[in-house]
Write a sequence for this structure.
């Protein structure tokens, strides 16, 4: 029940296109859903996060869509750029619970944006 | 600059040797974490610590040990009991909010361990 399933495993998009990465979770106690971006040889960095009281959150070209009933959330990257090429991880946690921020990560998506 | 530092960046170990990875943070964060990253498997939690002198096992703790003697430091020892230690190791930390909720988890730059 702790799993977070992420798809696709890899994604190739043309410059200017829309990149979409999907995640599904099982644990209904999860209440904080961050997305991380990781460049090769570096640690992940928080990109955007959402809590289940809203269905969508947008920051610049990055948008999270959240469907609580389906237990799914997705990352949309609009106007994708070659500099967006990286590995993206979704994650989930029960932020207010005793797990105290222990994140469960998806398997990661390698995004390649062609010029 | 506030942040998390990990050292060394690259580490080579012979089979049968223990090795310790360093993690230091100056963010005054309460909780610290160690993850292991393997290709295609995402990040898996090894150990985490919410306060000084206390830590809990994560999902893959076997063959690893940690200590938390200071708030800013959370070293990880990879012991000879870890069967497949070659991986990218990431340390992270997070601050507890006013209502006890967790906040953004910050990651260090990682240590790549290779067993020869």
């Amino acid at each position: 029940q702790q799993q977070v399933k992420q798809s696709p495993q890899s994604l190739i998009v043309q410059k200017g296109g829309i990149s979409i990465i999907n995640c599904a979770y099982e644990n209904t106690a999860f209440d904080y859903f961050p997305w991380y971006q990781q460049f090769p040889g570096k640690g992940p960095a928080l990109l955007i996060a959402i809590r289940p009281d809203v269905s969508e959150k947008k920051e610049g070209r990055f948008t999270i869509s959240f469907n609580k009933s389906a237990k799914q959330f997705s990352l949309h990257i609009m106007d994708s750029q070659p500099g967006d090429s990286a590995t993206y991880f979704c994650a989930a946690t029960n932020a207010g619970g005793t797990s105290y921020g222990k994140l469960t990560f998806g398997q990661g998506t390698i995004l390649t944006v062609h010029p | 600059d506030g942040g998390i530092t990990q050292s060394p960046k690259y580490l080579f170990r012979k089979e049968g040797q223990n090795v310790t990875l360093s993690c230091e943070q100056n963010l005054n964060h309460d909780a610290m974490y160690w993850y292991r990253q393997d290709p295609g498997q995402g990040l898996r939690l090894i150990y985490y610590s919410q306060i000084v002198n206390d830590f809990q096992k994560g999902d893959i703790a076997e063959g690893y040990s940690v200590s938390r003697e200071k708030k800013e430091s959370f070293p990880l020892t990879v012991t000879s009991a870890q069967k497949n230690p070659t991986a990218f190791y990431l340390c992270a930390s997070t601050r507890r909010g006013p209502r006890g909720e967790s906040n953004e988890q910050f990651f260090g730059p990682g240590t790549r361990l290779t067993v020869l």
Summary: The two ends of chain A are 40 Å apart (CA to CA).
